[in-house]
Specification:
The protein is α/β, with parallel strands linked by helices. It contains 8 helices and 7 strands. The protein has one domain: Rossmann fold (3-Layer(aba) Sandwich).
Length: 247
């Protein structure tokens, strides 16, 4: 028996936070798979780097500078979804900020992280679902973190936002399954990225010791979930390096 899979050729995909790390790698792999991709981030230089990287394999990759933490940013992004993509088939909610405990940060800093890591995910999903309901199907992938359960000291606000996303994703899935909308939660362990405290050299050493993953390995995981058969909803994937030292 041959198990059917879902092709990503021509699929219209929005990737939040697609300018660095997991998001950047995912944009490139989606382009390789033939998807039409729109991505965004807060910084022009990182956006252009991501677009140039993905356009090595496909020209159907677009981007803009926008902040997922603001109402204006969300409105700007989804206006671009409608005008540049002409609709939406897949949302990958990935934008996130590393943040410590609120007691050790200026008020604006931890609040902005909550708006980015939690509120931005919900606002993006809301807009995507409105479009999915019009088209009759869709798929949302939330990139969370094992921090939701690891709860390591020094990560309280970050862990709380990821725990919120974990609960939101699992509950939302039950709310929209009858609309033919899939919801997947991917919870990575330690992954090489700009937001890591480790230097690039330290990250390379950690990857060599199997203590950290390449961002491309998480992108591959996301594409696995997206390409299962229409009857299959990969609801939760937890992906860690073989030697996961901490959350």
């Amino acid at each position: 028996m041959t198990v059917d899979q879902t092709s990503l050729q021509g699929k219209r995909v929005l990737v939040s936070g697609g300018t660095t790390g997991i998001g950047r790698a995912t944009v490139a792999q989606l382009a390789q798979a033939g998807a039409v991709v729109l991505t965004f981030g807060r910084h022009e230089a990182e956006l252009q780097d991501s677009l140039e990287n993905a356009r090595k394999v496909s020209e159907t990759v677009y981007g803009l500078v926008a902040d997922v933490a603001t109402k204006d940013g969300i409105a700007k992004v989804f206006a671009a979804v409608d005008s540049q993509l002409g609709g939406l088939d897949i949302l990958i909610a990935n934008a996130g900020l590393s943040v410590e405990g609120a007691q050790d940060l200026p008020d604006d800093e931890w609040r902005n992280a909550v708006e980015t890591n939690f509120v931005g995910y919900i606002a993006s999903a809301r807009e995507a679902i409105m479009r999915f309901r019009n088209s009759g199907k869709g798929h949302i992938v939330f990139v969370g973190s094992i921090s939701a359960e690891a709860q390591s000291p020094g990560t309280s606000v970050y862990a709380a936002t990821k725990a919120g996303i974990e609960t939101y994703a699992k509950t939302l899935r039950k709310e929209v399954m009858d609309d033919n909308i899939k919801v997947t939660l991917v919870e990575p362990g330690s992954v090489g990225a700009d937001m890591q405290e480790k230097s690039p050299e330290e990250q390379r050493e950690a990857i060599a010791e199997h203590e950290m993953l390449y961002a491309e390995e998480l992108a591959d995981t996301i594409l696995f979930a997206l390409t299962r058969s229409p009857r299959t909803d990969v609801s939760v994937l937890r992906v860690e390096p073989r030697v996961q030292k901490r959350g």
